[in-house]
Each structure stands twice: as C-alpha cells, then as structure tokens.
Amino acid sequence: MTVENHLFSNSDSSQTNDSFADRRNPAVQRNSPGFERRQFSDGHASLSSEAAELGSAIDQYKLEHRRRYISYEEMLSVMKSLGYAKPSQA
User: Fold this and answer.
1) What's the CA gap between 74 and 39, in Å, rounded?
2) What CA–CA distance (Å, rounded) separates 65 from 73?
3) Those residues with Cβ within 8 angstroms of residue 36's Cβ, 6 or more apart along the chain or in another chain
4) pTM recorded for the entire structure
C-alpha cells in the first residue's frame, strides 16, 4: 500500500480516492471558471468608493498576473491605469 493510499484509506470515511481533488495541481486551478482562493474577496465593502475601486483593480491585477503580493511599482502601475497622476507643484 502506497503512502497516498494509506492516507486516504480510512474505513470510517465515505470519501474515496476518486473524489479527492488535488488543489495544488495548477491544471485543475486554471481550468476552473471563477476559481478564487482568496479568503477576503468581499473585504472592500467597508471602503470608500475610491478605495474599493483601487482594491478591486489591485485584486484583478493579482489574479491576471498570478501574484499573491505586488511591489510598489506594480501598485503604482495599477493606480496610473485608474487615472492617478501626481499633482504638479507650481
């Protein structure tokens, strides 16, 4: 008996090896429509409309680029894509 079979051969469990889904398999993740593993996807509800827009844009950037964390340069890029521009000093 292999280690994998031993781990999933609990006689009290009704779950079989056929129903096991390996969440670490990138092929499974990419092919699942709407797949999202973030815990706090509704975390923008208490923010102002501008902050919620920025948060959503950053979340979208992270999903598109498969990044968990972004750098300051990437955040600035997202902000500029929303129309942010540093005010000119006169």
Assistant:
1) 22
2) 14
3) 63
4) 0.53
**What are the tens digits of pLDDT across the range 56-76?**
999 999 999 999 999 999 999
**Closest C-alpha among 78, 42, 85 to residue 60:** 78
Mean pLDDT by 10 residues, the chain (90 residues): 55 57 63 54 80 92 93 97 90
CA atoms in the 13 A half-sphere facing the CB of 39: 0
- Based on its alpha-carbon atoms, the radius of gyration of the chain, rounded to whole angstroms, reads 21
**Stretch (H or E) spanning 30:** helix 26-31
What CA–CA distances, in Å, run from 89 to 40, 55, 86? 38, 28, 9
